[in-house]
C-alpha cells in the first residue's frame, strides 16, 4: 500500500470570516479560511483565503468538500446547513466566536468552549489531539476596522432579512436591526415615516438611535437625516442593494462606502 504524502495527511479546517473574526452567521458567509493543520505537530502548515459564489452551481457544502475540507468551525449555523455539511462528510463545530486566530488556538489546545457542551472533535477526524499549543497569530496576518458585538440598521421593504433593501432611508417601509452579540434581527415599523408630510428622515434617524445602532446601511440618504445620524455618532453606509442579508454581508466584508456629507443628496 502506498504511503500517504504529507499533503494527504494534513487536516484542512474551514472557518467563515469577516475581517479578522469568525462570521456570526454561517448562512451569510462568503469568505472562508481553508487552514491546513499538521496533526503531528499541531502547527498551521498553510492557510488560504477563498470566496464562495452563492450563484455558482456548487452548494457551499459541496464547494468546501471540493477544497478537501475535513470540517467547519463556525458560530451560528442553521440546522439545514449542518445537515448539508455532514452529508458531504464534514464535521461541524459551532458556537465559536471572536478572532479567527484565537478560535483556532483554542481549538488546537482543546480549550474551545461550546454552548451545547460538545467536545473538540479531533477523534472525528481520525487524528489524536496534540497538547502543543500553536501560535497562529503569526500565520493569520489579518485586520479589520469593524467593531464586534455592535448593532447594524438596514432599511428594508419588508420585515425580514430575506427582504429587499429599501433604497430610501426616511421613507423606508421597515428598518431591520442586526445584533451581532445576539446574532438576531429586530424589525422596526417605519410606516409613520412613509406617510409623513415632512421630517421623515429625522424621525427615522431617531428610531435608529433609540435602538442603539452604531451603523446604518441603506441605498441613499438625505442631508437632514445624515446630519441627525452623524450627530448621534452613527456611521452611514450607502449604495446597498439586493437582500438585507446580502447588504449585511457586504457591510461586514467592507464592500460598502461610508457616506460623507457630499453624498447626502437624496433618499429622504
Count of helical regions: 8
> Helix and strand string, N-terminal first?
HEEEEHEHEHEEEHHEHEHE
Overall structural class, as computed from helix and strand content, comes to: alpha/beta
Query: Would you tell me which CATH topology of the largest domain applies?
Result: Nucleotidyltransferase, domain 5
Nutshell version of this structure?
This protein is α/β, with parallel strands linked by helices.
Q: How would you describe the overall organization of this protein?
A:
This protein is an alpha/beta fold. The protein contains 8 helices and 12 strands. The strands form 2 sheets. Strands 1, 2, 3, 4, 5 and 6 form a 6-stranded mixed β-sheet that branches. Strands 9-8-7-10-11-12 form a 6-stranded mixed β-sheet, with helices on both faces. Helix 6 runs parallel beside helix 7.
Can you lay out the helices and strands and say which pair or pack?
Elements: H1 6-9, E1 11-18, E2 21-22, E3 31-38, E4 43-51, H2 60-66, E5 71-73, H3 79-87, E6 91-93, H4 100-108, E7 151-156, E8 174-179, E9 184-189, H5 191-195, H6 200-210, E10 215-217, H7 223-231, E11 235-238, H8 244-252, E12 257-258
Parallel strand pairs: 1-5, 5-6, 7-10, 10-11
Antiparallel strand pairs: 1-2, 1-3, 3-4, 7-8, 8-9, 11-12
